[in-house]
Amino acid sequence: MATTLSSFALIPIIILVIIVNGGEARPSSSSNNRPKAFFVFGDSLVDSGNNNYLATTARADAPPYGIDYPTRRPTGRFSNGYNIPDLISQKIGSPESPLPYLSPELTGQRLLVGANFASAGIGILNDTGIQFVNIIRMYQQLEYFKEYQRRVGGLIGAEGAKNLVNQALVLITCGGNDFVNNYYLVPYSARSRQYPLPEYVKYLISEYEKLLQRLYDLGARRVLVTGTGPLGCVPAELAQRGRNGDCAADLQRAAALYNPQLERLLQELNRKLGRNVFIAVNTAQMHNNFVSNPSQFGFVTSKVACCGQGPYNGLGLCTPVSNLCPNRNLYAFWDAFHPSEKANRLIVEEIMTGSTTYMNPMNLSTILALDDTT
Ligand SMILES: *[C@@H]1O[C@H](CO)[C@@H](O)[C@H](O)[C@H]1NC(C)=O
Ligand SMILES: *[C@@H]1O[C@H](CO)[C@@H](O)[C@H](O)[C@H]1NC(C)=O
């Protein structure tokens, strides 16, 4: 009787082992053979759908968002197709993009791929994007990262979770909204009455330093930090503040002050930490290339958004009743603020292989080669 029982008891175990092995990309399951985990923090440029789970107006969950995504459906990404995190995931050989942290599907083995904590509308400061009400502000994204590590610890042990995070790639994209959806949101905004622009930029950088230090304290060791793009040149600003199609001067000035100081901050942090944890991604230069010479990159325009209405298709939101261009690959901007998938691909190519002008101190190919051998 006892032998019968134990042989029955073995059957589910055998089945379990087969399922686990069948789901593995490689025969050995040591953590070093798994592709790197990937964690994403920031705003709408990298949000892959967290805001779908929140009561907020900052969302991309209606057509034509997602029109060129494999499912042809909106996902919460602010893109016609893939966004920057998707394309980086593909480059590092992840089996899938990290899921939004709020997705109920982010459980079990899928946690080991990483997670995306980004939330459209947020900035460095808590008071950025207040009009969107319910969004995941940066300090909360970092709290969720801590909670994530506890959950992964339950799966592979605390030591396993620590290694997974130490070996992971991290992307953080924020700062643009601190200008667009705060300082310059309305004339005489509270922040613009509090600080002249150069002082505001200094304040932002000092607050960003605290967030990056916290990210390091939580275990991040390879962090791609993007600067802001040419904020004054997006279709929304050309429509509202630009003169005769020229980029809006105040926002261009903000980006020109902010980006070099951010890069200097990252260099200082690396010096202090004694290692290259933070990598500056010069998105301003990447964008400038196709803003100043769109045809060289196969675009018919870098001023008019594919989806929208009004001058430059830059007014209001991209909705089912907006103008929509037939060929998204010909437009640098998908909507009034966000690059098209094609533009995202160009940006990720530069992230992979760019010179130190674009990727300081090194590009992602170099990072992957270095981290593979250690
Ligand atoms: C943002 O809010 C959190 C929680 O209230 C707080 O801990 C943090 O210091 C705030 N950050 C800034 C920059 O005020
Ligand atoms: C990456 O950066 C290095 C150093 O700047 C450069 O030599 C190399 O050509 C770049 N591209 C690749 C694919 O590594």
From TrEMBL:
CDD domains: SGNH_plant_lipase_like. Gene3D superfamilies: SGNH hydrolase. It comes from the Eukaryota. Residues 1-25 form the signal peptide. This is GDSL esterase/lipase ltl1. The keyword Chaperone does not apply. It holds the Pfam family Lipase_GDSL. SUPFAM superfamilies: SGNH hydrolase. The gene is LTL1_3. Transmembrane segments: none annotated. InterPro entries: GDSL, GDSL_Est/Lipase, SGNH_hydro_sf, SGNH_plant_lipase-like. The lineage of its organism: Eukaryota, Viridiplantae, Streptophyta, Embryophyta, Tracheophyta. Keywords: Hydrolase, Lipid degradation, Lipid metabolism, Signal. Belongs to the 'GDSL' lipolytic enzyme family. The keyword NADP does not apply.
